[in-house]
Design goal:
CATH class of the largest domain: Alpha Beta
Helix content: 40-55%
CATH architecture of the largest domain: 3-Layer(aba) Sandwich
Number of domains: 2
Largest sheet: 3 strands, parallel
Order of helices and strands: HEHEHHE
Shape: elongated
Structural class: mainly alpha
Strand content: 5-15%
Radius of gyration: 16 Å
Length: 134
Amino acid sequence: MVEAAQEALVASCGAVVCVSSICGLEVIPNAPVTYSVAKAALNAYIRGIARPLGAQGVRINAIAPGNILFDDSVWDRKLKEDAAGVQAMLERDVALVRLGTPVDVANLAAFLVSPQAGFATGEVWALDGGQVRG
């Protein structure tokens, strides 16, 4: 998609935000390995393409969300099945002791494409309430 849109991105000095996952940053127990590998590859792409795009005035970053709760999500199902287990995981693994929301992701995306983030490129921004340790 980035390659297909490159001409328009250059013409507009655009900014790109890709959606990754904390699964591409470190091993997350029970995460599918193939999913984690795909997200790690996306993260490498972001870091690798940032310089060539930057030379053309285009910024690119990624957001790596952690556990995001929305209707019919995995976390919605897990909360319904075992709210105490989810709470225990949050208390053990997540510094802010809560699940994220789509609004949390949207707010970071809006910042990353805004002029306020005009010096940010080639980064993978973890948005996980403090779950990632590395």
